[in-house]
Each structure stands twice: as structure tokens, then as C-alpha cells.
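In this supplementary section we document a worked example of the pipeline. Step one takes a protein sequence of length 406 as its only input; no multiple sequence alignment statistics are reported here. Step two produces a three-dimensional model, which step three serialises into C-alpha cells for compact storage. The input and output of this example are shown verbatim.
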Amino acid sequence: MSVFKDHKITAAELLNVIPEDLLSNLSQETKVDHYTKVLHGKKLFYLLMYGVLENERLSQRTLEDTFNDPVFKLLFDLDAKETVRRSSISDRLSVVDSDYFKKIYENIYSQFTKSYSSVEIEKYNLIRVDSTMVSETVGKLVEGLGHKSGKKAVKYSVSFDGLLPCDLQVFTASTYTSEDIALPEAIMSHVKKETNHQNIYVIDRGLQSTRAMKAFSEDKITFVCRAKENRKHIEIESYLSENQEIDLGESILLKDSKVQLYTGISVDNKRGNKHFKQTLLKNHFRLVIVKSKTQEDKEFWFLTNNFELTAKEIAEAYRRRWDIEVFFRFIKQELNVSHLVSLNKNGMQVMIYMTMIVAMLILIYKKENNIGYKTAKRRFSMEIRNLAISMIVIHCGGDPKLFFKT
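The serialised model returned by step three reads:
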């Protein structure tokens, strides 16, 4: 029940994209309900979804209180006599089959993308890929990436289509501190999910590996990434006349060339020590350099394996990469992803999938109702609260329309 009469879609309608049958069927496909008496997969799913929505700082203690709350149980039709303790929630998160939550996330994303128009499909083929690190309260992490503060951290690498998060990876091994390792793996994960795709993957300066770019080209994966300025290269062909500069609107095109890049090849010297020898790759890439109009001393170097887009389209593709930064800010500020509910990798995977599920519901709610991020989160939560109030009124024999005057 919504009090926002100008809204095109309600929270209740969005919750219907997660039918009981889906949760029950996935419970049978996975091992999510093995060795548990109370916190079955469906109940844990509802608990975490409601917990992410209703708590500014989610914890195992708040999840315990939420599960034991009669309002929560009535809202999701759970047994009023069942209770859980914080320790049970902690143990469950560490061993529950995270694939159950991953499949729910993928199913919801698939349902939402089926409603994309042909124009939107072309628009959302630009996949922004980036990572965010979470190191708050992770001193107790057994497995985690090293952090400058001395603590350990977890890295979330996300693929974002401009509206919704379309894939994610959780990294805790120290080797994934480097984006040259994490981002190619994240991109390949998304590519495997979308055969015959026409995606363009947009990456920030975190990825500089020439070997990764070579692998992308050989696997026919189109990318646009920001390179470090003055990166060593050999120009094969220029697409501009000598000293030609072209106005691109927000920037000025200084260079558009076919180039070859250098990469380091590991070799052993006579003493058996390894060192890297600079070698020129045979692969051809495209280097586009633009100068900012607002910051005249600021240049942006872009590398891509696409020779069909215009230089302006390449610069615009990178500019739209900023959408994923806005998304990261949203899940950190509004969904509290910077706070780890579980210090176990399995539990972290469960929580990030649940956070992405809630994020997708709110982002669709935001888009369809043409409102901002904070407003969408607040109103979505209000509608869930109103839904619970209505069920309580009905449960007590009353008429909710007498309270919610529509």
C-alpha cells in the first residue's frame, strides 16, 4: 500500500518479482536448507532483505532482534513461536550455500532486464567495471587483502550496466589487491554469462596490464580504459592531420592513433634471477588523447581495441563510467555495504548478494517513479512499513483503508 499517488510502481509490486515458488525451487536445487532447523534459506533471505532495508547499521545483533520481532514474522508469514540467537545467525552465514542467494540475484536481474527497451539494451551494453574495498572493522578477518592501515580488507568488483549491477565478484586473497588481476577476472565472469554479447567494458586507471588488454582482444572483448599519461608506445598510424585539434564539446581531441604497446616479459638472467624485459606486442590498439576544456593542463589518455567508434564516442563512454562511482556511493551510504556483518568469506558473499538484490529493487523503484536515490530508499522503506501495518490491522479484524485514506 502506497501513500505516494504519483508513483508508477509500488514496493509491494517489486517484491512480487521474488515469488515464493522461486525461493522454494531454489531451496531444492541448492543445499541451502541442509542441517538447519529454523533459519531455512527462505527465512534467511527475508531476514537479510528486511534487515538491509530497515537498519542503518546492520549487525548480527540487529538481525536477531529483527527475526524475533512479531511485525517481521507477520509480514513474511513466519511462525510466531520461532526464535533465533545472534550466534545461530553468525554460524548460519558462515556455512549457508551462498549459491542460493547468487541464483536469486541473477534471476531478479534477468527479470528486470527483460523489460529493457531496444534503445535501453543498446544503452546498457556499456558495462562499467570497478572495485571497492571494505576495511572497516575487519581486523579479525582470517582471510583478506592487505590494507595500508594494517588491517585486512575485502574487495568487491562489480560490473554495472548503467542502471543495475549485472555481476559481482568477492575477493579476499592478497593477489587480488592488484586491479590488473581482479578486474580481468570480473570482466571474464560477466562475459561467460552473456554469450554473443555486444558489450563494451569501461575501466578506470586501475587496470594497466598490456597482457590483459592483449587477452581481451584475442577473446574479442571490447574495452575502453584510461591509460597513464605518457605511456610508452609506438605509433603505427595517425587518424588526424599533423597538429590537428578537434573540438569534442566538453574536451579537445589531441591524438587519435593506431599504436603498439610495450609489455614486460619475465626472463631469467645468468644468475637465475628473474627480471622483466620490455617487449613490443604485435597487437594493435587505439590511443585517444583528449584535453579538458575546464582544466586546460588536464589530459586524458584512453586505450581501446575498438576502431569503429568515433573519438568523441570513446571519450563519452569513459565519461559515463562515473555511473558506477555513484552506485558505489549509494550502496555505501544508503545500504551500509561498508560495514561487514560477517567476517567469513561465505557470509560476505551472502551479504553482498543480498545488498545487490535490495539495491536492484530500489533502483528500479527510483527509475520508474523518477525520484532520487535517498528519496527512493526512504519511500521504499516507508511502503514496506505501511504494508506491515496493513497486515497487522487485517490480522486484528480491522480495515486498513480507514487508516490509509486513498
